[in-house]
Amino acid sequence: MTNSGDGERRDRDAAGRARSARPRDGLGRPLPYGAQGVPRQPEGVVRAPRETVAEAQALLDAGRPFHAHEVFEDAWKSGPEDERALWRGLAQLAVGLTHAARGNAVGGARLLRRGADAVEEWERGRGEDRPYGVDLAGVVRWARELAGRVAAGGEPVDAVVEAPRLGI
Questions:
Q1: Which domains does the chain have, with CATH numbers?
Q2: Confidence class of residue 129 from pLDDT cuts 50, 70 and 90?
Q3: Residue 40 confidence class, pLDDT cut points 50, 70, 90
Q4: Distance between CA 111 and CA 34 in Å, rounded?
Q5: 17 Cβ contact partners less than 8 Å away, ≥ 6 residues apart
Q6: Vertex 151 angle, CA 146 and 157, to 5°
Q7: How far is CA 142 from CA 3, 18, 27, 130, in A?
Q8: C-alpha of 62 from chain center
């Protein structure tokens, strides 16, 4: 922790960037220092694409879509340029489910739709409907259907029950 200059203490990583060391719950919400949280997803991990999909699916199945978003974000930031839009769209879908599970209906529906649009656009541009075993059309259908229910209902959804099957 370092002093931010206004009397506040801020957590920093080894490079000096602000990084919260607070534990997090399964939906990525910060908990008080000393509380028991779920293990943090390491950032900046370079994985093979199928490993990314498998790890993200396991996290989604466990009701941890925020953490699945971080896995997709690693692929988006480290993967080949021509696949970044795919991984970014999948990350948006996972964070959309996160917001929906937290009860943020507007943000959840918006991110689910934005992610679905990005994945669909990438699929059209590439003509590839099952990269690394991911059923893109099925994921897009799931996202749009969930976005509609979330926007209409406004209640938090169960992240485990609503987790998509990526198709791997």
A1: 49-152 (1.10.3450.10)
A2: confident
A3: confident
A4: 32
A5: none
A6: 55
A7: 45, 35, 20, 15
A8: 13
